[in-house]
Amino acid sequence: MSEVFGPTFQGEGPSTGRRAGFVRLGRCNLACGFCDTPYTWRWEDHDPAAELSRRSVADLVADLEAMGVDLVVVTGGEPLLQQRHLLGLLAEIALRGWECEIETAGTIAPTPDLVALASRFNVSPKLANSGNEEVQRYKPAVLTAFESTGKAAFKFVVTGPEELDEVQAMVDECGLREVWIMPEGTEPAVLLDRGRRLAEEVLVRGWHLTTRLHVLLWGDKRGR
Questions:
Q1: Residue 173 belongs to a domain
Q2: Which residue among 36, 77, 142, 204 is least crowded, i.e. fewest CB within 10 A of its CB?
Q3: pLDDT value for 28
Q4: 59-68, pLDDT tens digit by residue?
Q5: What is the spatial distance between Cα 177 and Cα 144, in angstroms, rounded to a whole number?
Q6: pLDDT in tens, 183-219
Q7: Model pLDDT, residue 149
Q8: Alpha-carbon distance 162 to 65, whole Å?
Q9: In angstroms, rounded to a whole number, what is the distance separating the alpha carbons of residues 45 and 10?
Q10: Closest by alpha carbon to 167, among 183, 187, 148?
């Protein structure tokens, strides 16, 4: 794993503004050019020996209990690379009555056991702007599997209105219902500018718009 941090606010998507604790896992099967957590996977300029560690479920739960949160966000990296090993943590979270959101790029389908324990999947399919090849980043059958859980929200990272047709094509092909658009950026001024340019067309298409609250509050600060 990479890090545990909080309490902070969930900064994106349907739970924006909720007090939460974060468990960030290492490793990813994509390589997004705009990734703001390259220390979880990009070993050309980060040291995995320094960035990643093994933690017991008991240790993680103790850290989360100390935060006094009722929402845990498991993020990455790509958490579903380790979904079998997540079940113990999610079971302990469920025992305490906390909610658990899992953030994923939507390239790996969840197992039934993971679906049963997760409160929500925040699925962020990657567009061409990510720099990944389409065959790697876009898995229609996987997105359809997430949609069928009844627990998924789909969040697309875009730089401008010209990319919304690409989102629309994916939404239509996979039958996605809860769609969120998020402007890409790690600077408050960029997020606000892109959000304003996106707002009207997002409304017209019947989708939701999210900012990145943690960036607006603290900039691109790690652990917030």
A1: yes
A2: 204
A3: 98
A4: 999 999 999 9
A5: 11
A6: 999 999 999 999 999 999 999 999 999 999 999 999 9
A7: 98
A8: 44
A9: 28
A10: 183
Q: Does residue 129 lie within any of the structural domains?
A: yes
Q: Which residues contact 80 (CB under 8 A, 6 or more apart)?
A: 102, 104, 107, 108, 109, 110, 114
Tell the residue number behind the tokens 């949609």, with chain if given: 147
> In degrees to the nearest 10, what's the CA dihedral of 15, 145, 23, 213?
-30
Q: What is the dihedral of CA 213, 218, 222, 224, to 10 degrees?
A: -50
Where in the sequence is the domain holding 55, given as residue range(s)?
Answer: 3-218
Number of domains making up the chain: 1
Average pLDDT over residues 118-146: 98
Q: Which CATH number belongs to the domain containing residue 140 in this structure?
A: 3.20.20.70
Residue 104 covered by a domain: yes
Is 223 within the bounds of a domain?
no
DSSP state string for the chain: --EEEEEEE--SGGGTT-EEEEEE----S---TT-S-GGGT-TTSS-HHHH-----HHHHHHHHHHHT-SEEEEESS-GGGGHHHHHHHHHHHHHTT-EEEEEE-S-SPPPHHHHHH-SEEEE----GGG---HHHH--HHHHHHHHHTT-EEEEEEESSGGGHHHHHHHHHHHT--SEEEEE--SSHHHHHHHHHHHHHHHHHHT-EE---HHHHHH-S-TT-
pLDDT (tens digit, 9 = 90+) per residue, 82-131?
A: 999 999 999 999 999 999 999 999 999 999 999 999 999 999 999 999 99
